Amino acid sequence: MKILHLNYYDIEGGAAVAMYRLHQLLKKNKNIESNLLVFSKKKDMPDIISSSNIINKKTNYLKRKLCFQFTKYQKVYSKSTHSLNIFSSGILNTINKIKPDIVHLHWVNNEFISIKEISRIDLPTVWTFYDMWPMCGAEHYTADKRYIEGYNKENRPIENNGIDLNKFIWKLKYENWKNKDFKVVCLSEWHKKEANKSKLFKNYIIETIPPPIDFLCWKDIPKKIAQGKLKLDNSKIYLLFGAANGTNDRRKGFDLLIEILNKNFHNNKKIHLLTFGNISDQDRINLKIPTTNLGHIKYDDYEKLRLIYSASNLTLLPSKLEAFGQVGLESLACKTPLISFRNTGPEDMIEHKKNGYLSNYLDKEDFSNGIKWYLDLTQEEIKTINDYSRQSVLKKFDEKIILDKYLKIYNSFS
After folding, report:
1. Residue 76 confidence class, pLDDT cut points 50, 70, 90
2. What φ, ψ does residue 368 adopt, rounded to 5°?
């Protein structure tokens, strides 16, 4: 069986990392030939095929710039989290030359493939959703309910007084995909629930399969050793916030975290915040507790990330909307418990007060209670929770379970 995975990047970003890990798993199966078709290729491997050349790169850049300009004609919460996928890329010719048995779509934005081209893939198609874009208009995440009802004039946000671009893109998807037979995969139960509610995918059978993780790679380092290597003071309690785009993506909830920490923990001299990703100057100014930013960490710099997770006492995921949250899974694998909100993707990972704390949705006081719960634990209780953090994800997110679920989907086409 020949599987062709499509993603804009081969290794950059959460979706690319998850796709690449699945690709590596599939390669262990002698009955599967797995290849990646990407636009931006960083790894020099024969089974990673790039659809780009110098002309394509320049063309793609112009398409993305033009699409970004389009988004300026509507008032939206975040222009950086909108994708149009309206320009033809010619990628269908490449797919047909490769002749796969199954096409597996992953994160296909940045004008990698158009909405119309997706409808014209004349092969069995699996699509793993990594955000809400497939079920929405142009948004990658949204808190409004237009994706449930269908985008119309009546449910248009009041503050959006420009072009209703989200409605235009949603209608384009609806017209092109309404008869398309996708096998859909979501990363978490919350993610699946939202897709099942959407007008575009409410009639689809949707599977929940989390992203795979190599537990031989992701494992803890003794805390004092990890803290020593990062030149941290082992008398402090380190709270960790990590995100690729740092605080630039407000969906990740760093604004909530600032309020929580400033209000409840600014007088606690033992608390120290660790961050990785880009932290804006204004966010640094707003924080009233000591903070160390470890900067941008590459997704495949496992050793550095393992050090960071292992050196931390508690990982904080205050995301307002999150399909899964791989930072959480990696943290738990490194024996560092987690605090997050209910009704988000990370809920699938957390067993309340066993490997972390689940606070009520967007409840800042309850999130604060989670941190206080951890601070009140004895050293013996902390060791039990840390050990169970890893045990819980070893059991639930074992790569064989994930592989078997995908193989079952692939085999359902035959």
Report:
1. low
2. -60, -40
pLDDT of residue 247: 81
**With the C-alpha atoms ordered 184, 188, 193, 199, is the resulting torsion angle positive or negative?**
negative
Mean pLDDT of 180-193: 97
122-133 mean pLDDT:
97
Cα separation of 188 and 326, whole Å? 11
Question: What are 91-121's pLDDT values in tens digits?
Answer: 999 999 999 999 999 999 999 999 999 999 9
Give the residue numbers spanning the domain of 281: 223-396
Which strands, in side-by-side order, build the sheet including 271-276?
Answer: 291-293, 271-276, 237-242, 314-317, 338-341, 356-359
Half-sphere exposure of 113 (CA within 13 A, CB side): 27
Asked, for residue 353, whether it belongs to a domain, the answer is yes
Instruction: List strands edge to edge, sheet with 48-50.
Output: 48-50, 33-40, 2-9, 102-105, 125-128, 182-186, 206-208
What CATH code is carried by the domain that includes residue 205?
3.40.50.2000
Helices (H), 120-213: 146-149, 165-177, 189-197
* Distance in angstroms (rounded) separating the CA atoms of residues 226 and 146: 46
Give exposure, 108-134, as e/b (b: 16+ Cβ within 10 Å): bbbbbbbbbbbbebeebbbbbbbbbbb
- Shared-domain flag, residues 236 and 192: no
pLDDT at 65 over 90: no
* In-domain check, residue 368: yes
Does residue 229 sit in the same domain as residue 179? Answer: no
Handedness of CA 11, 101, 57, 141 (dihedral sign): negative
Q: Do 104 and 126 meet the contact criterion of CB atoms below 8 Å apart?
A: yes
What tens digit of pLDDT does each residue of 286-298 get? 999 999 999 888 8
Q: Give me 276's structure tokens.
A: 């990785």
Residues 51 and 39: beta-carbon distance below 8 Å? yes
Joined tokens for residue 34: 């797995």
Measured distance CA(135)–CA(182) in Å, rounded: 13
Residue 14 has a pLDDT of 87
Fill in the DSSP letter of residue 139. Answer: B
Q: How far apart are CA 85 and CA 92, in angstroms?
A: 14
Angle, helices 14-26 vs 399-411, to 10°: value is 80
State the number of CA atoms in the 13 A half-sphere of 252 facing the CB: 22
Kindly state whether residues 168 and 272 are assigned to the same domain: no
The predicted model scores a pTM of 0.94
pLDDT at 159: 59
